[in-house]
Amino acid sequence: MIQEYPCIEVNLDKIAHNTREIIKVCRREDIETVVVTKVFCAEKSIVKTIIDEGIKTIGDSRIKNLINVKGLNCKKMLLRIPMISEALNVVKYSDVSLNSELEVMKSLSIAAQKLGKTHEVILMIDLGDLREGVLPKDVIYTTKEILKLSNIKFAGIGTNLTCYGGIIPDKNNLGKLVEIKDLIEKQLKIEVPIVSGGNSSSLYMVLNDSIPKGINQLRIGEAVVLGTEAAFEKDIKNFYNHAFILKGEIIELKKKTSLPKGRVGVDAFGDTPSFEDKGVMTRAIIALGKQDICLEGLYVRDEDIDILGASSDHLLLDLTNCKKDYKVGDIVEFNMDYPCLLATMTSPYVMKCFLK
């Protein structure tokens, strides 16, 4: 079979292994794992793999991705706080959503009544990262208002850390989330079933047994797909790191000078490039560009190759010191970090191939 490039090879066995491991790690602390599927656009074969390993709930930021896995036997969580304009589809295609605005939850209530469904909401609380969430002082009032909404079930509370402000989860901020849970239960005389303590950046606390008791859910993406925790970007023992391999084809291979000739202005992205004079080098172009990748998170698997840069559709490499004798038409393999994987899986120009 002729392979189409560029492509990502996805090793489903490695993803299955990482899923089993993350369930085992979190179960030791009585924590439910919600696997975040947005980084691979909820590709159905990958979602089915993680469900088969025992995951009960998946989470995604895009309704279109949740529609893509309609019919699979799992609970579906919308991670991005909903838009009022999509309320009907939120209720139709997700079972639970993360929320911070009462007006949005009122719209979800109306949609749920219309569809004859009960929709669960998790109230997000801002504990310092300054992305989504009500302030702690507003939690009791907001929860009271949620409890008044028809066809809406208050499922619990959650927080997000690291993604915007870079705030590291610790005993103080996650401990505060548990304190808020206790406060709600005491003042409102209700149960708070879910205390969702963030994403893969909270995982290091599970691994070193420091996560506060009472956190009973984590929303995990990076650990499953890349085998790393997100707070300090460390590999996790017994996890696979390279379940996703990007492959690109060499479309030009020539010896050229390292310095462009002529007056330097801005490039296609409005930046003024600078160059180091390394003399004549062996330069390759890969049919892959910034439209498909996050360049800063791309790593060549052949350590003798250096990345020079990229335009929209061309990736430039330095092969001067390569031991392997590359030719036009040969394939170069890359590892990716989380942002690069997200961009590449989202690109319709990169083929996705699934291996077992």
TrEMBL record:
<dbReference type="InterPro" id="IPR029066">
    <property type="entry name" value="PLP-binding_barrel"/>
</dbReference>
<keyword id="KW-0663">Pyridoxal phosphate</keyword>
<dbReference type="InterPro" id="IPR001608">
    <property type="entry name" value="Ala_racemase_N"/>
</dbReference>
<feature type="domain" description="Alanine racemase N-terminal">
    <location>
        <begin position="10"/>
        <end position="225"/>
    </location>
</feature>
<protein>
    <submittedName>
        <fullName>Alanine racemase, N-terminal domain-containing protein</fullName>
    </submittedName>
</protein>
<dbReference type="Pfam" id="PF01168">
    <property type="entry name" value="Ala_racemase_N"/>
</dbReference>
<dbReference type="GO" id="GO:0008784">
    <property type="term" value="F:alanine racemase activity"/>
</dbReference>
<dbReference type="GO" id="GO:0030170">
    <property type="term" value="F:pyridoxal phosphate binding"/>
</dbReference>
<keyword id="KW-0413">Isomerase</keyword>
<dbReference type="InterPro" id="IPR000821">
    <property type="entry name" value="Ala_racemase"/>
</dbReference>
<dbReference type="GO" id="GO:0005829">
    <property type="term" value="C:cytosol"/>
</dbReference>
